[in-house]
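hi! just following up on the protien thing from before. the input was this:
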Amino acid sequence: MSGPLDDWAIEALGLSAMPPADTEALRRAVLEALAETAERARSSSPYHGRILPENVSRVLTEGPGLVGLPLLTADELVRHGQDMVCLPLDGVARVVSMGTSGSTGRPKRLFFSDRDLERTMEFFRHGMRPMAGPGDRVLILLPGRNPDGVADLLARALTGLGAVPVLPETLDLPRAVQALDRGARTVVGAPVPVLQLAESRPKAGVQDVLLCWDRVPSSLVRRLEAAWDCRVLTHYGTVETGLGGAVECAPESGLHLRLPDLVVEVLDPDSDQPLPEGEWGELVVSTPRREAMPLFRYRTGDLGRILPGACACGSFLPRLDRVRGRLSDVWPKAPFPGLNRLDEVLFDLPSVWDFQAEQTNGEGALLLRLTVKPSPGAEPGLNELVLKTVQRLDPENGLEIVVAVEDFSSLSWKGAKRTFNNG
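and the predicted 3d structure came back as:
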């Protein structure tokens, strides 16, 4: 059996029939697509002309494969981004700028052609088929409503399915409640905004939820399932992956990779050596078919793994496990405790709607400051409850913890991802 993403991959890769999982034909087709893009990049981009080997096509298809190419870091993307563009600037349809935490403060800029954006819409359209059909209303709680932003691309993809995209007038809880009250079978958005909406309007008739984020806490998923009695799926994607990357077909089944346009490796963060399926490491992505600004072996900084074997749905596409978060937050050498662990234990508390974390060096210990947004009707003593909960993550008492309860505005409504703020 194949699904809509499999059929799309077969057509895009020029395969005449659906191969079983892990076949040589599939691997060869992907590397040939990447080799074609790499040859074009070498001749069209000053940066790739310097960095990629002269025989890049042979390296990918006949030689060592991906490991024969150099790794690309976020810092190099900041410093050399425009030199990676493979089209005249009048062929660029959209440029996305993102702030970085680097010392230069310069933004990271990604360039996309019209065809790049069309392929993202194709992925959205095929990936949304199990959740939305003709006449279904889909509430979109994502930033980027401007032309060719992520919400706009998703809305156009849904329209192509015959579904009805519903976008709030502004991205905030009151407008989201108003939009939900107009009726929606499916909700797509970031975890925290969707949680706040679900617990503001429980039993709303929502059947499917798609959470689009780098890290989705299982404890938050359980709260969504309880509030709406719905199916919750996850999507992993970043600007670097072209806004779309991988999506689940069923809860906890693994995320099917956007294979025509994305190749994923998993590397040991310490040795930079490839890891086998099933082992956790840094996700490294390459982008076959990307026109404006292809990336080769880009280090995402995300901790993930490729699941072994085929999905129970019968798809042959490689599958990612749910990403655990940023390496800087969760790898064993990172400051304790990781954001993924904080997410799990804090969203397991019904009185918590969101939190912010700041780490500093205290007197003889690492200082962790937590600002917690309470849910409506939160019980008194939430700060003490949060303190005791987090202290259980630190049995050796090597961490000084300060908790404040404050009704702050959740930045994830605007697309900002939670990180450790360094005080």
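The chain has two domains: 1-328, 335-422.
The two ends are 52 Å apart (CA to CA).
cheers
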